[in-house]
Amino acid sequence: MEFTIYLNDRPYRLLDVGEGECQLMIVDAKEAGSLxxxxxxxxxxxxxxxxxxxxxxxxxDLAALPCRHIAKIVExxxxxxxxxxxxRLRICQPQSxxxxxxxxxxxxxxxxxx
Length: 114
Fold this sequence. Notes:
The chain is α/β, with parallel strands linked by helices.
């Protein structure tokens, strides 16, 4: 299902589909009418896909965000993971933002599947 969620008072579009091992994808999809349109998941796979779109909360592309905004996104993702009780998950490296990926990798530590 696709909906808007507020994390630390910031709006994000969220798509949560499937069951099984969870894969979190963080995207900037301001051009997409629906997150389904992105084609980032295969419904035939036995996997859960959680796609978080940052475009409502942040006006810039993920690759152009300054460190202070990256830190806020990391806080928001941490809250999402706790709210959804995601004990183990994979993170698809965010669009051209290695800094965000590394910060999440460090934060999630033992929860992260490689």
